[in-house]
């Protein structure tokens, strides 16, 4: 996608004069995030999904690692494999099937991503969160983003659910944003505010549902932080995150939420705590996070996560 004309540093040995008319002499400069997926391309993808499913979804769900079963409870489903959707990236991570499922859940038309895109897969943030814009142009008003995360808050246990009420955007601290580059006002403003990103009404409803399900002791409201991955964090990093007020850490979600808020979607997000993060030095192998454990815990807790999502959608439907 990078235009050949955007290259400014000729390759070659220092001082060597290269013929700039030869394309291979020009380096590749990445296209800015904001230019990767123009509005028209997103519209084409959205049209493909709406026409292909003959449905207009109201709620978008992003399934976290090992939480793909959130899409399995959708009825009358039309399933699109990512490879078959024009201009869509492919999933490369275990536990992310790479399917888009459109159908009915608790009386609402929903579209669920069984597989999200992560920065560490080599995708720029705008590409990771591009499907959120597709959801918007399909008609989605609510984004439900879920993830598997490491618990940093010492009160959290493996299997707990943390409803996100805020985030610390570590990739943003490093100057990276899905909104970087030219802004298209058809999606949203140049400088979106993020103070009320996580819908309070939905958090309160979810807490109430947690009580009804009898899992209130395993439910928290907290702060998530996204790092670039794919490494899990060092003890020093985890200590620093805790000092910043972070309760759970992962490698996703924040850029999706930023993109959703930019285009004024209502956001509900939660982390399933799949491992406890060590914040003290020790020789215990148990302290090391690993993806197999993440997936196993997610599988064990998928029933509760599905029930929470289904009941919340039922309430949204009842009050609309
Ligand atoms: O955030 P999700 O996609 O749930 O996955 C989490 O689990 C993986 C690490 O085990 C990372 O991709 C991390 O972000
Ligand atoms: O401990 C973790 N760190 C980062 N990402 C994660 N995803 C699941 N667990 C973790």
TrEMBL record:
One of its GO terms (molecular function) is guanosine phosphorylase activity. A purine D-ribonucleoside binds at residues 233, 275. Phosphate binds at residues 65, 96, 116-118, 148, 252. Its EC number is 2.4.2.1. InterPro entries: Nucleoside_phosphorylase_d, Nucleoside_phosphorylase_sf, Pur_Nuc_Pase_Ino/Guo-sp, Purine_phosphorylase. Keywords: Glycosyltransferase, Transferase. Coiled coil: none annotated. Residues 58-314 form the Nucleoside phosphorylase domain. It catalyses: 2'-deoxyinosine + phosphate = 2-deoxy-alpha-D-ribose 1-phosphate + hypoxanthine; 2'-deoxyguanosine + phosphate = 2-deoxy-alpha-D-ribose 1-phosphate + guanine; inosine + phosphate = alpha-D-ribose 1-phosphate + hypoxanthine; guanosine + phosphate = alpha-D-ribose 1-phosphate + guanine. Belongs to the PNP/MTAP phosphorylase family. This is Purine nucleoside phosphorylase. It comes from Drosophila willistoni (Fruit fly). The gene is Dwil\GK12508.
């Amino acid at each position: 996608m990078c235009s050949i004309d955007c290259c400014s540093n000729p390759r070659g040995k220092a001082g060597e004069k290269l013929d700039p008319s030869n394309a291979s002499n020009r380096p590749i400069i990445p296209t800015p995030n904001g230019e990767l997926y123009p509005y028209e391309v997103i519209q084409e993808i959205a049209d493909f999904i709406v026409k292909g499913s003959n449905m207009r979804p109201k709620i978008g769900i992003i399934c976290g690692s090992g939480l793909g079963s959130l899409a399995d409870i959708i009825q009358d489903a039309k399933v699109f494999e990512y490879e078959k959707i024009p201009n869509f990236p492919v999933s490369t991570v275990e536990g992310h099937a790479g399917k888009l499922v459109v159908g009915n859940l608790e009386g609402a038309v929903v579209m669920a991503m069984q597989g999200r895109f992560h920065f560490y897969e080599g995708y720029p943030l705008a590409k990771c969160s591009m499907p959120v814009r597709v959801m918007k142009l399909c008609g989605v008003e609510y984004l439900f983003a879920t993830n598997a995360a490491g618990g940093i808050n010492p009160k959290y246990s493996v299997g707990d659910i943390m409803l996100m009420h805020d985030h610390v955007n570590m990739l943003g601290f490093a100057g990276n944003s899905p909104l970087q580059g030219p802004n298209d006002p058809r999606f949203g403003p140049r400088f979106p505010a993020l103070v009320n990103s996580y819908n309070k009404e939905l958090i309160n409803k979810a807490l109430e549902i947690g009580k009804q399900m009898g899992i209130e002791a395993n439910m928290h409201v907290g702060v998530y932080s996204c790092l670039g991955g794919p490494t899990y964090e060092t003890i020093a990093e985890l200590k620093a995150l805790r000092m910043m007020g972070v309760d759970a850490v992962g490698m996703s979600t924040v850029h999706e939420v930023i993109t959703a808020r930019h285009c004024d979607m209502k956001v509900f997000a939660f982390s399933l705590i799949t491992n406890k993060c060590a914040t003290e030095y020790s020789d215990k192998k148990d302290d090391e996070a690993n993806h197999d454990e993440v997936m196993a815990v997610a599988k064990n807790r998928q029933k509760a996560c599905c029930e929470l999502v289904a009941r919340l959608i039922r309430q949204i439907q009842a009050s609309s």
